[in-house]
What does this fold into?
Amino acid sequence: MKIGIVCYPTFGGSGVLATELGKALAEKGHEVHFITYQQPVRLNGFHANIFYHEVRVPTYPLFDYPPYELALASTMVDVILNHDLDLIHAHYAIPHASAAYTAKQIVKQKTGRSVPVITTLHGTDITLVGRDKTYEPVVTFSINESDAITAVSENLKAETLKHFEIKKEIQVINNFVDVSRYNKKPVAAFRQVIAPHQEKIIIHASNFRKIKRIDDVMAIFNNIHKALPAKLLMVGDGPERPVAEDLARQFGIENDVRFLGKQEQMEEILAVSDLFILPSEYESFGLAALEAMAAGSVVISSDAGGLGEINIHGKTGYTAPVGDVENMSQHAIALLKDEALLKEFKHNAIAQAKLFDIHHVIPVYEALYKQYCRTGNC
Ligand code: GMT
It folds into this structure.
């Protein structure tokens, strides 16, 4: 099949998922066309079946707000027509689903062909931004106009139905991870640099936005640090980073906290981790936690959104109500102090990640595409 993937190219979970999906589809022989404003971060190296089409937004003195959505829709039309795409898969509703709707109408008018649009809802497009009155009518319309709608967790499906008037079935297709890539032996030299005295290694990775509750991450680590020798690796970047740096200094733990910035090779970093902290206010799924589990890290998370669907309380780690720093700290300390229990939970985390392995999920997307693909390529 010839598949157009529209996504955000940045480090966020929706872009990562879309890129990994495209790469896996290309590996299986499909022709994949990424359409976005920048080379997606995980799209590195050459693959004969992968094409990248950059959306350029010309500036003009009149445009206080450059019309990205129009440029995206026009680029989609161009790619659909010139590469004879079978379908468009839009990741994140805003503005991808509405731009895909526009492109579809233009192609229909030009050629009479109706190109299927599949929209995957990822989280904040529904729970935060999409619900805002400024966007809601367009989001509702473009979701309903999609030929198929998928959500990355049962929780996100429920949230979507609760807040939007959706007239179509939403299929849950969980996010996935390539367990074979993450389940690596830790690089001894890297571990030695980070934790020279065999300290436990704790990781948090996110876009450092308010919703991630970075202050909780720091408070939980501070409690862990008081109880046992430990190091914290903060991966990613975003508006709350200065807050985290301030807190590290206030707690006097700045020498045991490393801010690594945005990282592409998460599998290398996660390979040395013992425990992953994700105390978010909301996560539709928590792909970062799943990747950590695939690398054999136990997870201490909030029970918000879809997190409980992947992090099984008392088995792969622990979940606690949002903001319950004490609860999360005590569970983390108990686990880190008990080598046998930690080993058992790490084993469980890998087993749980295997349920979300890429090899189970790609065929589900392929089957969905086949349902809508109407050309000779299908
Ligand atoms: O909040 C983020 O981490 C970024 C955001 C995005 O849209 O890229 O992530 C959302 O989609 C991911 C992939 O489906 C999910 O794993 C994240 O849980 C979700 N974030 C939220 O719901 C806050």
Notes: The chain has a mean pLDDT of 95. The chain has two domains: 2-176+358-372, 179-354.
